Amino acid sequence: MNKRSVISGLMGATVLTAGLGGAPAFSADITITMAAPDWPPTRFMKEHFDQTYTSPAGHTTTLDMDFIPWPSFYERVAASLTSGEQKYQMIVTDSQWLGAFVEGGYYMDLTDKIAADPELTTILQDLHPALVSAYSTYPHKTRAQLEAAGEVPAPGVSYYGFPQFPDTYVTFYRQDVFCDEGEMAAFQAKYGSNLPCSYEDWQDTDWSKWGQIGEFFQRAKGEMLAGEVLDDDFYGIAYQAGKGYDFSTMQANAFIWQQGGDIWDESKMPDSQAEGVVNSDVAVAAFDEYLSYLQYMPPVSQTGQMDIFVIQDLYMQGKVGAIIDWVGLGEPVLDPSASKVHDKSAFGPAPGSRKADGSIDRTGNIGGQPFVLTTWNSEDVVDEALNVVKWWLSPDTQLAAVANGGQSGRMSVMADPTYNDLRPWNRAHVEMIDWQKDVWHIPEFFELLTQQQEEFDKAITGQIGAKEALDTVAEFQQELLEDGGYIE
Amino acid sequence: MANTANSRGGFGAWLLDPKRRGALLVTPALVILFVMNIFPLMWSFGLSFFNYKASSLKVPKFRGLSNYERVLTDDKVWERFQTTAIIVGSSVIVQLIIGFLLALMFAKAFPMRRIVLMLVLTPMMLSFVSVGVFFKLFYEPTFGIVSYVLNFFTEDHFVMLGSPAGAIAGIVIADAWMWSPFVMLLVLAGLVSVPKYLYEAAEIDRASAWRRFWTITFPYIRSLLLLAVLFRTIETFKLFDIVYIITEGGPGSSTETIAVFLYRNAFQFFKTSQSSALAYIVLFIVIVLTNLYLYAVNRRAEEVS
């Protein structure tokens, strides 16, 4: 916190008011230092803030973004918070960190501020409920629990974050390959169904077809692809299957939820159990299906290192026909200086599991990040930080952000007629956001996640099967959660 | 004398009095050592007896030796020690062999020797992170150079990091690539210190190459080899960067060294006290190894003198 500058600003304003009898009584120089991952959505926020932000309170406000590379983002933020240096006034945070840093006393409870401010209440009402559930509530409340409350803010619920960048995963695919007449005819002849070419085709694509695409497009160097001889091996599909952070859990959870399985449900603690749920037959079958498609993916999938950045790279190099990746990683794909497929890419919803009635369940694990306020700020800084929140979530700013590779969590903005045309993945994002759920938020989330990632990694690299992996995960979670008092 | 100094130069002269100059010069170093090393060491040692979590504002409670008991009875800790031992053992052996062969090569004159020597020494001057990233890309099965080259013979992609054995081999190769030149330097120092007349005398006696090596060369490099073994063992025991970048401890936890395990517990799970206890156990092991190292250094000094 820039206490000195706040105090000197206030003193200056007082002197000015006394001397001239006119200027704003509380104008001050306020610097808001924000921890932010270093990528386009936060870079744009800084750039746009410098160009457009005017403090409604008359302050001279500086947004000082501390851009931190993604791989070390958690460690850097955690080190700063736990060291007590009180460097940041705002933090872009993964939703899973809420528990650890709320319980640690670092993230500010905004419930009263929201309730007392009609503008913030209106924003909260307009945010997509999946985002409010995942990004804002701690202890975690599901979308259903929030909707059942019937009012915003819901009574008895604590709110912490607002969406800085709401992210979902969608399908990135090569139109030149998927819409090639020869390939389409060959696919039809082999599988008796069409190769997805248009957005509507992807809306009807389930995991079974995803596997067929993988099998169909697995081509060796020298073979033909869309009428051209391949100068390198080519693969049809890829999704995240990496050991690092959450780079397999995010995709595996989708399979488990879509098929009726579940993870340990923190919204129902202390009654919800891990054993028998995490390793249920349904969950094992779903995880097994997730593993079964890895055989069609680039060989890096066998190393457990096929994370979201690796699949993005492989796609941009033209080695994969379709990937499922975060919207936040879409912008480089369209960059001619970085991507060989910048002019051949299109986007669709991620595949899902087909239900008995023929519809497709696309439940997925939400990505993106909220931003939060820290607990050590003065009232002036808190109020100004909330002004920054309002500015960022104002329709004009949100549309500008979307046009520059960002996303909006406001339903009114997503309903804007221009929205879908602002970026090529927007239609898929709007469709996918309705399906989003989140992983755990309790302070022990990193232990849960790391152990699960290790076991998933063993399964991905073929050392153990789906059942053994989930049995081990369930046993570990049950013990950890019982020790922590989350399961009775 | 002091009065004279005081009267002539005041406090500055008093401070720079030869009687105080030594202490004055040493003080900054001692202060830095205390602030940067000794105080954190003592603080973390104290923490290891509490149930402190850096992520929590709860007042920590005294837990005595329970953290040490918990660490020493944790199967995961012993698994990580085993993994570390396998990586240390394999890597140090490979480094010794390659370093020794390189030293033998560079002990003789040949064209462009200095340039080649400089190139061979380059890996140990690179940062761990760079080396980790290089090798991660080398091993990448889709476009990495290792897979690309082997693809000519096997007509299939070579997935080095897909199995525990392959991943350990990958780490050992990267570590050995980086540090074999260090072993080479030590051995080379021993080789060039062997008096030439001993070889000449052996040649007159028609001693075999092996005999010449065993009775003349080896005694001169023996303690230096021991030094290399100990130094590299201590360093490899703490190996973190290369492992974290190349495999992140995977597949599963098969390459998770004790240093990576410690890092996860301290900075991802925030088990601050428990990880402090583990850190002290690791420190104890390193101190034992360091004492062996110092013993070897002293022995070498005695031999030289």
TrEMBL record, chain A:
Q: May I ask which residue range the UniProt record assigns to the signal sequence? A: 1-27
Q: Which UniProt keywords apply?
A: Signal
Which stretches does the entry tag as region Disordered?
A: 340-362
InterPro entries in the cross-refs: Bact_solute-bd_prot1 (IPR050490), SBP (IPR006059)
Gene3D superfamilies the UniProt entry points to:
Periplasmic binding protein-like II
Chief subcellular location equals periplasm
**Organism for this UniProt entry:** Candidatus Rhodobacter oscarellae
Q: What is this protein called?
A: Dihydroxyacetone ABC transport system, substrate-binding protein
UniProtKB/TrEMBL annotation, chain B:
A Gene Ontology biological process noted in the UniProt record is:
transmembrane transport
Which Gene3D superfamilies would you find in this protein's record? Answer: MetI-like
Looking at the record, the residues that make up the ABC transmembrane type-1 domain are 81-293
Which compartment or compartments is the protein found in?
Cell membrane
Keywords of this protein's UniProt record, alphabetized? Answer: Membrane, Transmembrane, Transmembrane helix, Transport
A single Pfam family it belongs to is: BPD_transp_1
Q: Where are the transmembrane segments?
A: 23-43, 81-104, 116-139, 159-192, 213-234, 277-296
Membrane-topology descriptor: Multi-pass membrane protein
Task: Please give the family membership noted in the entry.
Answer: Belongs to the binding-protein-dependent transport system permease family.
- Protein name, UniProt field: Dihydroxyacetone ABC transport system, permease protein 2
